[in-house]
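Hi P.,

Sorry for the delay on this. The queue was packed all week, but I finally got your sequence through. Input first:
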Amino acid sequence: MSQGSSLKDQPDSFGWISIGLHWLAAIILVVLWVLGRSIEFQPPDAIDTRRSLHVTLGLLAWLLLAGRIGWRIKHVHPRAVGQSDRTHAIARTTHYLMLALLAIMLLSGPLLALTLAGQPNIASLTHVAHGFTANLLAILVLLHVGGALKHLMFNEDETIARIFVPRARQQDEPDPRPGKDS
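Then the structure:
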């Protein structure tokens, strides 16, 4: 497989674009979650600074995170070699649910920042939705990591490796796409 063809996802492998977007989003989300959770534990004079940092980072990351959602919608979720239909459906559904929650975060965060001063009822509702969605997303991320660790420790498959490096095909291995024999 040439380096150029490993940029995009293949039917059984994530490409470099998906891998990069996955890890950048993961890092950003962890930082945003920690910052967001820490706001309420700050002394009153530090709350605005911490909230501003959270909002600024969220706005800077908005386009990248929206791009992550768009990329996965446009490109089919690759199937791991040997993965059962049920396992693939669970993994795909979990990933899409995480992306849906991320989309809610991308909408509720800026809305919360815009409504804090002028619309206390909307701000309160948005705050609850943003916090609840963040916690639900964190739970799904932990389940996602747990599933990856399960594959690493108990399954003899390539699931964990495929989010670090695109799968390299052997010279004699046919392309898994219908009608694309090598």
